[in-house]
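Progress note, project year one: complex with ribulose-5-phosphate.
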Amino acid sequence: MDANKKLVANEAVKEIKDGMTVGLGSGSTVKFMLEALGERVKEGLEIVGVPTSHQTAKLAKELGIPLADFSNVDGIDIAIDGADEVDPHLNLLKGGGGYLVREKIVDILAKRLIIIVDETKIVDYLGTYSLPIEVVPFGWETTRSRIAEFGCAPQLRQKDGEVFISDNGNYLLDCDFKIIHDPAKLHDDLKALVGVVETGLFINMADVVMIGHAGMVDVLT
Ligand code: 5RP
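Model obtained:
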């Protein structure tokens, strides 16, 4: 699986050109992408990166990738990110690592969003992977009850025995829908609830999905 992630990461990095502002996603596939990008920067590629998580920022710095302060960024030429699931319409379920809000802010700004995955992420319908929903801590129990009415049993995400706190100081509810027939509607309905900050459904955002499998890269557009 790692070989496929690395393959697809290397392929995506070829799309990055001199002078670009590059959105840097999060996750283990993106880690391979950062390593490949770091090599190209060492060879003289001049870009500036916009990280979507503390982890990505830390690794990018270690690899010598110059980073921009997001407050000073007007636009993003290209973003490269991972996903937990991709459906045939290129809708995505993301946020397994807990960085869905920052990822969505950066990815949506990108003129071109490239998603890099291995073949295990390709599904007919989103929802087998639990959908992360970021909620404000205040009154999270009532928000959870209202989310549950959509047909799942939201679980408060924990890490190392403690409540997981997002990069934005919020909680995450992981919601096992099993199958999401209309992700756009579900996203809109969930977003309409007071207390919901964002969902891990990335609707109609990906321009390209690169899939690594059996030593090859397939491209969906
Ligand atoms: C983090 C994400 C990741 O992109 C997603 O979880 C995929 O990660 P990986 O490449 O490790 O499978 O959305 O919030």
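The two ends are 23 Å apart (CA to CA).
Residues 25-29, 81-84, 94-100, 103 surround ribulose-5-phosphate (CB under 6 Å).
No further modelling is planned for this target in the current period.
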